[in-house]
Design brief:
485 residues; alpha/beta; Arc Repressor Mutant, subunit A; Aspartate Aminotransferase, domain 2; seven-stranded mixed β-sheet; three-stranded antiparallel β-sheet; 14 strands; 39% helix; globular; Tscrpt_reg_HTH_GntR; PLP-dependent aminotransferase family protein; DNA-binding transcription factor activity; DNA-binding; Aminotransferase_I/II_large
Length: 485
């Protein structure tokens, strides 16, 4: 079923469309068409969505139907709208332009490159002692085959205890250890999504999740996030679930990647209820849940509101600890965990025992490790926002209350061009279109604050120089960036 935007919903998204730059030089219909194109470019208005009828939108905007008719005509002529008599009009992009979200590669070992494509921290100092302690624990496992499809019991107990401490009672039987959060997502998709199934995701969202969905040949629909602190539009998100009735919805409610938004508790409860009513399973990515900043209080886990085993939570060690420790997990009902273990046999059998034991020791020291991470990240976030305010004041930034990334609104649709130019001056970027579908989000850029403050300031200085010369320079040669994480 095609999702539809009602007239009142589109009017709210358009906001003060008649006051946009250049408004006085354009007739009403051209300004309205330009505002709709802007929503599509930003990813706030998904592709393939049916727009309201002309009369309905005219009433919502309190303008003449003739103006809306002319705006829709201009959108059709520019390739942003497809219409069929008696059936309505759907959003699209001109031609066959599409930006893929895949393109993973092995990063170059270039010490002069400031890599802002990967949002991950270096290992904490506690990692080496944890590895030594894990090696001392290993002998008691050497007498067995070493295959633990759901994970060693010590780690499952530690992860379950973490959920319980967050107010979500969890038993070890509800935990399955995986080889990272991405592996957890892949296993859940193998179990819960048939090839070609319909999936709802946020826009923007995590590129490697889009890659996993593409591998399942999923039919992806999107819910556009606001650029301000509000994040999710509850009316539109719940409407997408009720109308589209997707098989799965993949959401990142805790410091969303890349925007840093934090979903409020009331919306979490409503999303779970809407998912149950629509027959939609919710895959909740909690990769950043351990990283609230500035004393931000976290809402209850989404699964707290689940009474029908509709919520599957995934998380891991990569963001708060170290990406090189490939440990993730799934929290679900005990029967779902057993089905995941059966599906896993065709993939990798089990996660490495030694890595799991390292994770056990790190989680035992979690309060101290995570507190230090939060202090470090808050300082680096502030250093990055200060540098952007000084060197690139026309870029709009809302400092997140947690996570590891800024979602920056640029001064024009230049994200991909900026990434190409920045590569030449030793800065690797993750341009906005990587976080969406079909070439949108060109006015946005994700900037992680996981590097030292000095590196972040240097990177911003180089970006400022590139931005100044971008419109004057020729198109540089550029190789596709490697990993976005």
């Amino acid at each position: 079923m095609t999702s539809q935007v009602r007239g009142t919903q589109l009017a709210r998204l358009l906001g003060q469309w008649h006051a946009l730059p250049g408004r006085r030089r354009s007739p009403d219909y051209a300004a309205l068409a330009g505002a709709v194109r802007g929503l599509l470019a930003d990813g706030r208005l998904p592709l393939g969505v049916r727009l309201p009828a002309e009369r309905e939108l005219a009433e919502a905007l309190r303008i003449s139907r003739t103006t809306v008719t002319a705006a829709y005509r201009q959108l059709r002529e520019s390739g942003h709208l497809a219409s069929r008599r008696g059936a309505g009009s759907w959003t699209m992009l001109p031609g066959t332009h599409r930006v893929a979200s895949t393109g993973l590669w092995t990063p170059l070992d270039d010490r002069d490159m400031i890599d802002l494509g990967v949002a991950a921290l270096a290992a904490p100092p506690e990692l080496l002692p944890a590895a030594r302690a894990a090696a001392e624990d290993l002998p008691r496992y050497l007498g067995g085959a070493g295959y633990h499809p759901t994970g060693v019991i010590e780690l499952r107990e530690a992860v379950a205890a973490g959920y319980t401490a967050r107010g979500l009672p969890t038993s070890p039987d509800q935990i399955m250890v995986t080889s990272g959060t991405q592996h957890a997502l892949d296993l859940v998709l193998r179990l819960a999504l048939a090839p070609g199934g319909n999936v709802l995701v946020e826009s923007p969202t995590y590129p490697n999740a889009l890659a996993a969905l593409a591998a399942r040949r999923a039919r992806i629909t999107t819910h556009g996030l606001a650029t301000d602190a509000a994040g999710w539009d509850a009316d539109l998100l719940l409407g997408s679930l009720r109308q589209g009735r997707p098989k799965l919805a993949y959401l990142i409610p805790d410091f969303q990647n890349p925007t840093g938004h934090l979903m409020p508790a009331e919306l979490r409860e409503r999303v779970v209820a809407a998912g149950h009513a629509a027959g939609t399973d919710l895959v909740i990515d909690e990769s950043f849940v351990d990283l609230p900043l500035d004393g931000t209080e976290l809402p209850p886990p989404v699964a707290t509101f689940d009474r029908h085993s509709r919520v599957i939570s995934i998380g891991g060690m990569s963001k708060p600890y170290w990406g090189g420790l490939r440990i993730g997990w799934v929290r679900a009902s005990a029967p779902q965990v057993q089905r995941l273990a059966a599906a896993r046999v065709g993939v990798d059998m089990a996660s490495p025992v030694l890595d799991q034991l390292v994770a056990v020791h790190l989680l035992a020291d979690a309060p101290a490790i995570v507190a230090a991470r939060r202090t470090q990240l808050a300082a680096q976030r502030d250093a990055l926002t200060d540098a952007l305010a000084r060197r690139l004041p026309d870029w709009r930034v809302t400092a997140p209350r947690g996570g590891v990334t800024l979602w920056v609104e640029l001064d024009g649709p230049i994200s991909s061009a900026l990434a190409r130019a920045a590569e030449e001056v030793g800065v690797r970027l993750a341009p906005g279109p990587r976080f969406g579908l079909d070439g949108t989000l060109e006015r946005f850029l994700r900037l992680p604050f996981t590097l030292p403050a000095a590196d972040l300031a240097e990177a911003v200085g180089r970006l400022a120089a590139v931005r100044y010369d971008l419109d004057r320079a020729g198109r540089p040669r550029w190789q596709e960036p490697a990993v976005i994480a």
